[in-house]
Specification:
mainly alpha; 4 helices
Length: 175
């Protein structure tokens, strides 16, 4: 079996994980649904017709094994058409099963991604709340420091950085 992308997908069962029927359906689907099969089938039909026509025309005194209008060929093609419908349904059911396994895996991954996104949003909101609390506490410390300096009669120190500047710097860093 040629290497198809979904055969390497972790959600799709392959190899020993498949039943014999599923492996057969894969082989038939990949075989009958290919251009080499169509070309080989056309070559067999043309070969059959040429061989019988050559023998009918009397070349080398042969007798055709399937006289015109090729009754045996018609019987073989009718039998093939009868069984081909069932074979194609089996192959289509296997393809549906593969699509279902891929869809289930995609759904599970989407659910995990959604859960992670919700957790990330909650943590971001917690971080934002903590940052707001730090800003408020920084402002309270600044006010208390100024009040303490005023109570002790010390010179009021000029702040080199305001809490708003700290807040803006932190927001830019988080970016």
């Amino acid at each position: 079996m040629r290497d198809i992308l979904w055969t390497r997908h972790p959600a799709v069962r392959t190899g020993d994980q498949l039943t014999k029927g599923e492996r057969a359906a894969d082989v038939i689907r990949n075989g009958m649904g290919s251009w080499p099969f169509v070309a080989a089938f056309a070559a067999v039909l043309v070969g059959w017709m040429v061989l019988n026509s050559h023998l009918v025309l009397g070349a080398r005194g042969g007798h055709p094994f399937d006289r015109f209008p090729w009754i045996l060929l018609n019987l073989a093609l009718s039998c093939l058409a009868a069984i081909q419908g069932a074979i194609l349904l089996i192959a289509a059911r296997r393809a549906d099963q593969i699509s279902s396994e891929l869809a289930q895996h995609t759904y599970q991954i989407d659910q995990q991604t959604l859960d992670l996104a919700e957790q990330l949003a909650a943590r971001t909101e917690e971080d934002l709340q903590l940052t707001r609390e730090v800003k408020e506490l920084t402002e309270q410390v600044r006010k208390l420091t100024l009040a303490m300096h005023a109570h002790l009669g010390c010179e009021r120190p000029e702040p080199t950085v305001t809490s708003e500047q700290v807040w803006l710097t932190e927001l830019q860093r988080l970016g």
